[in-house]
Amino acid sequence: MMTAGLLPHFRALENESKRRELRPVVARFALASAALALIGASSGRFDGTAANDPGRPTAASRAKVSTIALAATRLTQSPVEENIETLARVVGSKYRVSHDVTREFVGTAYREAKRNRLDPLLIVAVMAVESGFNPAAQSDGGAIGLMQVIPRYHPDKFSAASGESVRDPSTNIRVGSRALKEYIVRGGTEAAGLQLYNGAPGDTSNAYATKVAAERQRLQDAMRRARERA
Q: What is the DSSP secondary structure assignment for residue 8, as one 8-state letter?
């Protein structure tokens, strides 16, 4: 027999279980609503435009469909996926890179950040400072790609013999993130690690680290504003 003291705890667990079971149902319902709104908007049935032009939805109906579809997408996204999506939009807008491309870059940054126990925004900020999200960027000193990796300094982090190249964006982010983590461990602090990454450990002003930190803060602020507008 269940004691009176355990009854509230059991009910709380039961309620949480029911909420988890309902989440997929709510998400599917929202997606179905978005599809229904899209059909109605295309036919003009929901806003009285059918009599004038049955094949042409109004701006209001298109906006309604967009809003419903966005809400449905959010219901099916995890918090991490939502952060990736928001950051990809922010980066794409600021650096004039297509959303699909930035989504791939940012998604890879989050994956490598988890693997190396780094802040994903730190990796993205380094990409912004180093290359402005240009995967074809190359310096006179031989630094290549999004994170300006110098291959000869990191032969242990990728397999050239297997065809891997730091010119590939995913490989570049993977190698750059591992290098950054190693430098932070060696330097003892994030700022010292960033200075090592930049090849300027003797710069007591920490100019590079300050620049990356400022970019990370700008990205954080832009993400917050994007969420507030949504």
A: H
The string of pLDDT tens digits covering residues 81-125 is 999 999 999 999 999 999 999 999 999 999 999 999 999 999 999
Helices 169-187 and 99-116 pack at an angle, to 10 degrees, of 40
Domains in the chain: ranges and CATH: 1-76 (no CATH), 78-230 (1.10.530.10)
Instruction: Compute the distance between CA of residue 213 and CA of residue 126 in angstroms, rounded to an integer.
Output: 9
- Which residue shows structure tokens 């701006």? 59
The answer to whether residues 62 and 222 touch, using CB atoms and an 8 Å cutoff, is no
Cα distance between residue 187 and residue 209, in whole Å: 12
pTM of the predicted structure, to 2 decimals: 0.69
Structure token pair of residue 178: 């591992």
- Cα–Cα distance, 31 to 10 (Å, whole number): 33
Say how far apart CA 26 and CA 229 lie, in whole Å.
23
Residues 171 and 164 sit within 8 Å (Cβ to Cβ): yes
Per-residue pLDDT tens digits for 146-162: 999 999 999 999 999 99
